[in-house]
Specification:
Layout (H helix, E strand, L loop, with lengths): L3 E3 L14 E4 L2 H4 L8 E6 L21 H18 E11 L40 H11 L3 E9 L16 E8 L13 E2 L6 E2 L4 E3 L3 E3 L4 E3 L2 H11 L5 E4 L6 H8 L3 E6 L2 H13 L2
Parallel strand pairs: 1-2, 2-13, 3-4, 3-12, 5-9, 12-13
Antiparallel strand pairs: 4-6, 5-6, 7-8, 10-11
Helix pairs in contact: 2-3, 4-5
Amino acid sequence: MLATIEFPDIEIEKQKWSKSLILHGDTRDVVKELPDNFYAACITSPPYWGKRDYGYDGQIGAEESLNEYIDDLVKVFRVIKRKLKTDGTFWLNVGDSYTSGNRTWRAEDKKNPAREMSYRPRTPGGLKPKDLIGIPWRLAFALQADGWYLRSDIIWYKPNCQPESVKDRPTQSHEYVFLFSKSEDYYYDYESIKEPAAEKGKTRNKRTVWQVNTEPFPEAHFATFPEDLIQPIITASSKENEFVIDPFFGAGTVGVVSNKLNRKYHGIELKQDYIDIANRRLNNAK
């Protein structure tokens, strides 16, 4: 069984930071206790705004306003920046949302029970009902303004995306993964993730559209990070035995892939049910 450390009981001797760990608590508190200048990369997908109710008061993703949500995440990642090595990178996956039209709840979706919501945030000022909010880019620009170097916007194309019943717009089949760096010069092993070129036997620099199927996860009624999405990120942004951090660990895909690639990880997760799932996945993957 992997070690799980409870916050605020997080007094960990320095040597214990040398092990992979899951830290149980609110990431806004726990990240402050992590060692500085320690991680090669941060790879994460925070709760999307207004998409899930995890059952915790004050949870990230359930803010009343979009600006509060963005501000909460900017503050978390500002601390994360101190925890990264000087040449560290930050990979952020975040999904978009449409305005709720001021509906205050969302009914259960039989195909996806986790979509049921007891609350819905109000339509942000300046937007209209049915507007696409543009959350990924709003957050990316806020992080850029906070000092991060915004280096790339990667399109995660999902061939097996979830069907939508809409008839007045295309079905969403992509999300963004943003690459940020702490410094102007940073570690990025482009050679390790080159992709096949059109010419037989040749390779080329990896492009910004990544075709990766989603991986439904019935045990938790949500889709986890696909391993095929995370593998090139960890490969390009870290060396063997270095640490990566995922402050929204969820079902633990960053940990699973880290183990397979001989990296170490620290994951932070608020929900005990997800920690239990992550522990099972990590133990089964050994």
